[in-house]
Amino acid sequence: MNPEFLPFTRPSIDEATIESVAAVLRSGWLTTGPKCAALEAALSARAGGRLVRLASSATAALEFGLRIAGVKPGDEVITTSLSWVATANVILAVGARPVFVDIDPATRLIDLDLVAAAVTPKTSAIIPVDLAGFPVDRDRLYDIASHHRLRVLEDAAQSQGANWKGREIGSTGDLVALSFHPNKNMTTGEGGCLMVNDAAEATLFEKLRLQGVTRSPDGTYDCDILGGKANLTDIGAAIGLGQLAHLDEANARRRGLARLYLEKLQAAGLGLPPADFEQTNWHMFQVLLPESLASRRPAVIASLKAAGIGSGVHYPAIHTTTLYRNLGWRPGDLPHTESVASRILTLPLFPQMNEGDVERVCAALLAIIKGY
Ligand SMILES: *Cc1c(COP(=O)(O)O)cnc(C)c1O
Question: Most buried pick, 24, 110, 125, 371, via CB within 10 A?
Answer without folding.
Answer: 110
